[in-house]
Amino acid sequence: MNVWADLPGQEAAVAQLRRAAADDAPTHAWLFTGPPGSGRSNAARAFAAALQCQAPDPAERGCGTCHACRTVLAGTHPDVAQVATEHVTYAIADVRELIGKAQDKPSGGKWRVIIMEDADRMTERTTNVLLKAIEEPPPHTVWLLCAPSPADVLVTIRSRCRPVSLRVPNTKAVTELLVRRDGLTPEQAEFAARISQGHIGIARRLARDEGARLRRDRTVRLPLGLRSVSDAVIAAGDLVELSTSEATAAAEERGAAEARRLRETLGLAEDAPVPPQLRSQFKQLEETQKRRAKRGVNDSLDRSLIDLTTFFRDVLTLQLKAGTELVNDYLGAELRSYAARSTPEQTLARIDAISEARVRITANVSPLLAMEAMMAGLLPPR
Fold first, then answer.
1. Which residues contact 262 (CB under 8 A, 6 or more apart)?
2. Are 207 and 201 in contact (CB under 8 A)?
3. Which residues does the UniProt record annotate as the domain AAA+ ATPase (predicted)?
4. Of 204, 193, 188, which Cα lies nearest the Cα of 170?
5. Hey, how many other C-beta atoms are within 10 angstroms of the C-beta on 309?
6. 82 pairs with which residues across the strands?
7. What is the spatial distance between Cα 181 and Cα 184, in angstroms, rounded to a whole number?
8. Between the CA of residue 126 and those of 94, 104, 183, 313, what are the distances in Å?
9. Are strands 162-165 and 112-116 parallel, antiparallel or unpaired?
10. CB under 8 Å to 222, separation ≥6 — which residues?
């Protein structure tokens, strides 16, 4: 199985990357863009594997079976660095460290490849630090930046990168991948692919985690119980609680594992007190975990709002008699009843209310206040 197998529905992008991998002098900087679920990071990692591939035939680079391909995909190749910030934005120090790493010659591979996820999380100052490294890169270095859209990256960076545009794969392509790769039944895979709207990672999680499916179902059903302002306040609290509990559980599990690894690195027993000279390292870890936990809650809440939007997307589809497939087809009767009680204009206003809530979350508005304001906007007219 080659490295391109996990990129369903991306035929045009895969063909572009295949041609570049077969070239012994690829472009030094690339910008992978596409909406959430399009597989930006997967595509960048597959391209990195193809660049390092040891297949003798250039047309076969990205074979997926050689040592270089396998180590890149496993994240253990010494000449491929894949980085993502745990903070709201990249710190300048983080980018400077990457630039220093980019100057190193490959230790065994053909190229020094730097994959930078969420490049849209760079501030203008941080971007300016990176700019010179991309303008005048060492001949052996290839930068792979990932962002939702070209507009999310400053034009000074964008103009110096070769673009790779990705799209969210359709339900059929994701279904086939989940059946082949993850061993799901066609029914399980098709349901997960549809309600995830083609997001492969989310589809896999929903198919395997019943708790995740139940949380999503509770979120999508919230508009059905809205009758009064008190209902809106309760629903807002429920939505924040659902998102917070999911993110907190994941953060605590990861945090405990990091603390154990730090103790092992420092030679401390699990229950041994931390010596004063080492406390700064544990304090730094705690601060990093707190920032990451906050971002995790916001990201989880944003995913919940995307799920909530699918309810009104389906309602609007029914009101306009568009004839397209419903994302939440299993709620068909409830959706049709709701659609009959409102107008397309009201539905669009509710979708706008959810979009506004997503913007407020990114602007550090209190999640509960943002959700209460949004839920008030979802109430049926009196």
1. 281, 282, 285
2. no
3. 26-226
4. 193
5. 18
6. 115
7. 8
8. 9, 21, 43, 37
9. unpaired
10. 235, 238, 239, 308, 375
pTM of the model: 0.75
Q: In what order do the strands lie in the sheet with 162-165?
A: 80-83, 112-116, 141-147, 29-33, 162-165
Q: What is the rounded CA–CA span in Å between residue 15 and residue 116?
A: 22
pLDDT score of 262 more than 90: no
Interhelix angle 229-266/210-221, nearest 10 degrees = 150
Candidates 61, 353, 83; CA nearest to 235 is: 353
- The per-residue pLDDT for range 163-210, each reduced to its tens digit, is 999 988 888 988 998 898 888 889 989 999 999 888 888 888 888 888
Q: Which two tokens stand for residue 46?
A: 């597959």
- DSSP conformation letters of 262-307: HHHHHT--TTPPPPGGGHHHHHHHHHHHHHHHHHHHHHHHHHHHHH
Phi, psi dihedrals of residue 149, rounded to the nearest 5° = -150, 160
3-state DSSP assignment of residue 148:
coil
* DSSP per position, 209-275: -HHHHHHHHHHHHGGGG--SHHHHHHHHHHHHHHHHHHHHHHHHHHHHHHHHHHHHHHT--TTPPPP
> How is 24-87 classified by DSSP, letter by letter?
SS--SEEEEE--TTS-HHHHHHHHHHHHH---SSGGG-S-S-SHHHHHHHHT--TTEEEE--SS
SS3 330: helix
